[in-house]
Amino acid sequence: MFQKILAFVLCLLFFLSSAFVAAGASEDVFFGPFSAENLNGGGIVTDAYYGNAELTYINFWATWCGPCVGELPALAQLGAETDGKAQVIGILMDAADLNGIRDEQAISAMRKLLDDANVQYPVLYPEGDVIEVTIPYISAIPTTVVVDRHGMMLDMMQGALPLNAWVSHVQQMLP
Q1: Does residue 73 have a cis bond before it (omega within 30 degrees)?
Q2: Which domain range does residue 76 map to?
Q3: 41 in the Ramachandran plot: left (φ > 0), alpha (ψ -120 to 50) or beta?
Q4: What is residue 170's predicted lDDT score, i.e. its pLDDT?
């Protein structure tokens, strides 16, 4: 447990310092290209996934984060509630430690949580280019980054939301 807390604190400090640098950028932010293992059903997910909906909500979460777990059912329903205009990709931040060592216990806990919440969307392993592309923008979890069909960042939110707030956000983002 101590190792997970230490890893989280170190990640948070890294994320905060990166976020301050990223926040100063005034140019467009592109989230891609990437490919990563889908822990929720296997296979590889790439940035081509963005093309399946008008908006993609990239949700950074961890199995030990109560608000993250609490919003899983809402995120699982987002696509259906928006007639497919929005979709979700999860990134399980505690699937690997700071040294990149896979945490099978966290992945096993994730699978139970996803089953309980009826989550069908991909949940990615946090490694390689998927983290390099996204990590400068994450200073807390849960954090959700919204991108368009081409991977351009449109918005970023910290904290968990109920389904009606997610649906409202999609409606505000689309014309």
Answers
A1: no
A2: 2-23+30-173
A3: left
A4: 96
Torsion angles phi and psi, residue 111, rounded to 5 = -60, -40
The number of domains in the chain is 1
Lowest mean pLDDT among 21-25, 31-35, 156-160: 21-25
In angstroms, the CA 114 to CA 147 distance is 23
Question: What is the CA angle 51-111-135, rounded to 5?
Answer: 50
Surface-to-core class of residue 7, CB atoms within 10 Å of its CB (0-12 exposed, 13-18 middle, 19+ buried): middle
CA dihedral 46, 134, 32, 169 (to 10 degrees): 90
Q: At 43, which CATH number?
A: 3.40.30.10
Instruction: Round to whole Å and give the CA distance between 106 and 94.
Output: 6
